Amino acid sequence: MVAMASALPSSVSAAEPIRLALIEGLSGPLGNGGEAVFRNLVWATERINARGGVKLPGGARPLALLRFDSKGSVEESLSMLRAATDQGVRVVLQGNSSAVAGALIAALDKHNAREPEHRALFLNYAAVDPALTNAQCSFWHFRFDADTDMRLAALVEVIAQDRQLKTLYLINQDYSFGQHLQRQARAMLAQRRPDLQIVGDDLHPLGRVKDFMPYASKIRSSGAQAVLTGNWGNDLTLLIKAAKDLGLDTRFYTFYGNALGVPGVLGEAGVDRVLAVAEWHPNVGTPDSERFYAAFRQRFPKPEHDYLHARMQLMVEMLVAAMEKAGSDDPIRVAKALEGLRLDGRPLGVAHQGWMRPTDHQLQQPLYVSVMRRVGEAGVPHDNEGSGVGFRTLRYLEAGQAQQPTACRMRRPE
């Protein structure tokens, strides 16, 4: 359990904490991503506690974050969910794998129906398969990341404007998220850039490839001018490292190229070649953003800890706002308070804003497409991971521009 902030008043620190269970791969080949998430959520809970905790009718209560290491496995994640609910935890957090998220949604639906006195909510910060808020949408599940179609549409918007681009290679992880991205990328590109030739299309095992040189060689042989990938964690870092080692002069349109080792690996070689889409990045340039980033760097000063996502901070802030609105931490009351909730996190130091769409529990939020540039250039005051390179905004989409339709037919509890 994460220690409570020492600045808490004694009356708050003595109150029973509201426990949040992080179920994530904290070890194994993708453990670096899980630990990076943990740092974000530690900071989010610390900030709430420093303000006095969650203000409820019975008195203020602090947040406490529990670690449950799923090792990136669906089976282990389900075991950790049972352990968390057995301990009476009412809020579960997960995101690094849509396959895991889908299994957790199904299991939590059954648990909440069987044991209404021990219900729990699932807050998702990174599992972006659209099916999770469409075919599998659940009253108990809320997603705070932009889904695959939202992120992909933003990247395709930039690709569509690059009329010099003629050939593209697709490479993704072989599970629900990567498979959907593969299909949807072809559909969107066929509509927006029917002249663009897809010269390669690979799916590879999630977290099991140690050497991406064979894939980099295929990309070179294909003659692709650019690569579109949803890879994350070491699967992205190792892919781009292989491309660098092979000397590929290829542009990478990525979902996650602005964090988790990619800037540090590429450095100068990634300038003008790596693009990323996110809800925020350190060089957004507003005063709120500058204060937000400076506060995080003060808390986590090591360059290798440079992995900050505004949506994770907003997720915790919105959870607390919903609890305070409901006057309770009861999952069904909190879920109803979350539906339709709008929160501008900027006054709270989050530098981000969002609206929780009631129909499918998909957060609607602005998106940025950015490109890697040298630190110190116009629009790039901050680098990533001490690499000397950072990201500059290419395209900003308001929440209304980024939203996608939903096919959710949600079943609500009586």
Automatic annotation (TrEMBL):
<dbReference type="InterPro" id="IPR051010">
    <property type="entry name" value="BCAA_transport"/>
</dbReference>
<keyword id="KW-0732">Signal</keyword>
<protein>
    <submittedName>
        <fullName>Branched-chain amino acid ABC transporter substrate-binding protein</fullName>
    </submittedName>
</protein>
<feature type="domain" description="Leucine-binding protein">
    <location>
        <begin position="17"/>
        <end position="370"/>
    </location>
</feature>
<comment type="similarity">
    <text>Belongs to the leucine-binding protein family.</text>
</comment>
<dbReference type="InterPro" id="IPR028082">
    <property type="entry name" value="Peripla_BP_I"/>
</dbReference>
<dbReference type="InterPro" id="IPR028081">
    <property type="entry name" value="Leu-bd"/>
</dbReference>
<dbReference type="Pfam" id="PF13458">
    <property type="entry name" value="Peripla_BP_6"/>
</dbReference>
